[in-house]
């Protein structure tokens, strides 16, 4: 039993303890008000518990709605003072329990209610006490002026506590914002460090590849025209990769700029992607039906990345195989990339296995889907379906079929 009580005490927070204290206080006040009510006022025994409840139980609203609790307590106090006669040996218009409850509720109103409500509650309570409390002559004058001053001290103390609590909360909020700013600054510094590392390692070596590819025909004797074209293709591909790396470095170095705010490929950029693949030696032909310029940015970016990954997978896993690409822009955007069986052994891949999953994630983010699998002739086929909404094929839609380059 003691262990259960101890566990319950640990689970209770400060608010629960406060609510329990308020309930206990209300019960104590009620236990005092009910048995002593007949000593202060001429009340029938049957009415005593109800009148005592109006004197003690409004304090239960001290946290939930102190203004409502104060209204009930003040209204019942005025009604008791005017409608219920008090005993000859009692000069107070209502019980001391009701005075305690009213002052406690007025303090709670000062802590939580709007300033206008606090002023009304203070004025009404001062008027109630100042006009109903006993006294004649100087004593009455002292009651009229004394109660407002005493209650003003209660209200001012409540407002002081309130402002102290608010200032403390504001200080905590400022500290949290400062902590978030420090964390953000640390993230930006880490991004800058990653950008420096990428620049020093990847961009540096890519730049060397570009330089070597461009100068190889001049450094190596007996370079054939075909080899010169191959070097030019390697240099163009390396420059394209270097440009993308520089764009990524710009995002990493930006101060809080989100990646989606950086320049991203559009749907019409797939033409440059196909040209680059052809320059790199990929045997590729493509057809496009519809206007690529009418495709939304998100769908266009998904189209570009899926096509890029499909061509990359074809060149890695089926080198020398012809690749056919078909893009249809109608009610929906359809992409089909098919490659035949490889004409040469596949290139060794150090790490990977996430290409198809990445394409599916791209399509899912745009609201579409991707299917990929082997084709009947031993090659591989990727199909993507991406929604376009209200985008339709325009009258000036182009249909391009380029001959296969061997």
TrEMBL record:
The keyword Hydrolase does not apply. The keyword Transferase applies. GO terms for molecular function: ATP binding; phosphorelay sensor kinase activity; protein dimerization activity. The chain crosses the membrane at residues 20-37, 43-61, 68-86, 92-111, 118-135, 147-165. Keywords: ATP-binding, Coiled coil, Kinase, Membrane, Nucleotide-binding, Phosphoprotein, Transferase, Transmembrane, Transmembrane helix, Two-component regulatory system. It catalyses: ATP + protein L-histidine = ADP + protein N-phospho-L-histidine. Residues 190-255 form the Signal transduction histidine kinase subgroup 3 dimerisation and phosphoacceptor domain. Residues 301-388 form the Histidine kinase/HSP90-like ATPase domain. Pfam families: HATPase_c, HisKA_3. Residues 166-193 form a coiled coil. This is histidine kinase. It comes from Nocardia bhagyanarayanae.
